[in-house]
Amino acid sequence: MEHVFPTYARFPFDLVKGEDVYLTDNHNKKYLDFTSGIGVCSFGYSNEIIQKNLEEQLGQVWHISNLYENQLQDDVAGMLCETDQLAFFCNSGTEANEAAFKLARKYTGKTAILAFNNGFHGRTYGSMSLTGNPDIQQGFAPLVPDVEFADYNDTKALGLIDSHLAAVILEVIQGEGGVYVADKQWLTDIQQACHDNGVLLIIDEVQTGIGRTGQKFAFQNFGLKPDIITLAKALGNGVPIGAMIGDKKLASAFGPGAHGTTFGGNKLAMAAAKGVLQQLTPAFLENIQDKADAVWQKLNSEIKILPSVTDVTGLGLMIGIHLNEQIDVNDVIVKLQSKGLLTLSAKHNTLRLLPPLIMDQAKLMEGLDIIKDSL
Fold first, then answer.
1. Which of 106, 155, 244, 264 could disulfide-link to 253, CB 3.0 to 4.6 Å?
2. 146 is in an annotated binding site
3. pLDDT for 268-292, tens place per residue?
4. If you ran DSSP here, which 8-state letter would residue 183 be given?
5. Which amino acids does the record list as binding pyridoxal 5'-phosphate (predicted)?
6. Residue 170: strand, helix, or coil
């Protein structure tokens, strides 16, 4: 590639066609996909309902800006939100977290935010400042001030939550950080400390939301009720979209002029999101849970025991296979590509798996067998 900044370490092939849960490259090699475009294309690459919604909207109008009423936005918000919540639409996960950051400060009148080491919330300045990864922040100082950090799953964090904070932001599963799942009691205690001290709880569902763990939102596995939720990725199945959901009480701080976006909530993105949410039914989520049960049985009985594997973590169809230090995860990814399987990495030498949620159990097992043989 000659005309693009070298911000990505790209693999040397171009994925030019997608069908169901398979991708084909420019050399006509076909791959079973265990990446979903980094947790995005949960409904695969040829979903009829999403395609139909997009085609119909393409024949009407693509973009109108947010100067006018948008019934499609309201319809999608109604599908996303509980009755005591409102939505704000944007274009990505980092934008959703920027909106949450601004709303928390404006509503509370306070500036301090508690985030967690090893977390990831985006690469724009506010979101990057909330990201507990020095490698991502390197070279961009000074960052947004008044962001404090604690260790994930550490009870010492509870002592840092007091009335000086505007909000606490966390992922219930740290995806980019290595697919580490939070302890349920720790999450419950974090939420209680927030409530006791008038601190907003923001849960970043950008990678974990929209069915990835077998629930609409991953925090539902832990019995939580955050004040603000951020999401993106799978909400549009490949059409750029982000959203922030917040309690209705927060609306007083987000009136006209408080925040905005030219493209956020555009009709094409809303058409795609509506197609996603139309299919995110209780039966669909139950099917994910059933498939995940079989996947985890195989992971624990056949892959976790391998000498090259130190642990397997995750929830639902969000999986991290932690490799020992003698094996480079990037070498494993290339080896799997040669065998026709696409996978991802995460921090701490982790092989990350985010297969499309529509993938049937037989194909999930096929992919795991390829991984087992390669490891």
1. 106
2. no
3. 999 999 999 999 999 999 999 999 9
4. P
5. 93-94, 120, 204-207, 262
6. strand
